[in-house]
Amino acid sequence: MKKLHLLRTHLINAVPGLARDPDRLLTFVEEGSIEFHRGPNLSHEYQFAAQLVLTDFSEDLDTVMLPLLQWIADYQPDVDPGEAISFEAEIHNNKSVDLALRLRLTERVIARVDCETGSIQVEHALPHFASNECMATHWQLSTRGPGEQDWTLTSEWDAPDG
C-alpha cells in the first residue's frame, strides 16, 4: 500500500502541526480487497478504505483538506467527488479535536511472471495525473475568518510529485 505511504508523507509535509509531530497522524486500512483475474497472470489491484486520524488537531480544517484534495486530484482522479472523503471529529474542547478522515483508494500491482526462470517481478503502478492547469510546485494557504479583514498564512507545502 505504497499509495497510502505517499499520502501520509504529503500530509506530514503540508500540515504544519503534523510536520512538527508526525506521530499525531495515524493511518489505517479498512475494508480492503484484492481484485484479480484467474490464470497465470498475478497482476492485481488493492482496493481499500484508508482512514487517517489526526489526534489533538487544533489547526484550521482547511490546512488538511486542501492538501488532501490536491493529492486526490493527482493520485486518485477517478474517484467520485460525492463519495471521495468522509470525516468524523471528536471535539475535546474549544481548541482541539481528533479528526478521522476516510477515503477510498486503489493501487494497481503489475506482476511479471517468468515461468522459465521461476521469477516474478512486481511493480506498483502509482500514476501521477498532475493537472496542467496549475504549474506551481510550491503552495501557500492563507485563511481568514468571518469579520476578519486580513489573510493569515496558515500552511505551505510542495505539490505532490510522487
From TrEMBL:
- What Pfam families would the database entry show? P2_Phage_GpR
InterPro entries hit by this protein: Phage_tail_completion_R
Superkingdom to which the source organism belongs: Bacteria
State the protein's name.
Answer: Tail protein
